[in-house]
Amino acid sequence: MNQPLDKKDVDTSLADRLRSEVGMMVQRSLKGLEYLSTPPPAVGMTPKTLLHRRGTLSLYHYHATSDEIYRVPLLFVMATTNKAAIFDLAKGQSLIEFLLARGYDVYVMDWNAPTREESHLKFEHYVLDFIPDCIARVQKDSGVDDVTLIGYCMGGVLASTYAALHPDGPLKNLVCFTTPIDWTKMALAGSQRHFQADRLVDASGIVPAQSIVRAIEMHRPAGRIAGQVRLWDNMWNDDYVKGYRMMARFGSETLPLPGEYFRQIQQDLVQGNGLYEGTLRVAGKTVELKQIKVPLLHVIAKYDSLVPPECAQPLVANVSSHDKEELMLPGGHVSLVAGPAAVKRMWPKLDQWLGGRSI
Question: Is residue 40 part of a domain?
Fold first, then answer.
């Protein structure tokens, strides 16, 4: 039978807890001052070469780190709202660094803020110009005709649309991360369904980055505050703070969008749900997911509040590929791809799937 604690033991235990709490508070305060007085950590530092730059588009080739390289190169297509830093946060936290170490030849389509002269850009410029142009440059640079296309979020929409419109190649494999297909199931689209895109586009030509950030925050209005509370609670933890700052920097570098491209997203995807319904037309061509026949992997996040599983799942269900796989993993829209959980869960699965299909 447990003996009751006497008053002296209780006082000692309480004093220890108070000392611990005061110590943590002091540490948080000191770390908070350090947080405010130091620049955010650098991201995107894996060595690379700029192969091509054309306005809003940049094509990079990352330097090989392995003696033996898989034959089929990988071409990443980043979501058009952000820089591609999510693929290359920091040493030990970089998907690109991981893939290079495993022997893959990695290229990335990254985006820059569009100029007013690029406000006319539409879906067709991304799908029928930028992606084919980059694939041709990757083929020439690598000396290999086959290419694996890897798209994240809206980059996955562009990659899937390209694959559907080019069923005869030269695509070898298609990989998508948390890519929206049924936009009626997309939480953000619900709040934007009656958004007056024409008024914004006609007024400015370019959709400001802040408008995109506000739209995302409307979806999760308490998200930023909750994140700041968690940061304060963990301010004493250097690893947590470093990870938070890297993710925050990625999130803060939201890009503006060309007005006509944004107008098409609103009309054809948000309101028309064209990719799911089979009514999306790009330069007069109908986009049908059933035309995708290459090996496909779609990795979706179980707790993704931006692109819920039911929004992403129709991709694998509607393509004609015989070799296709849907992989659902714990995580959210960003943590699926980057962060400690991604290092342990998604990255090894991706390597396992790509390995035999990159020879």
Answer: no
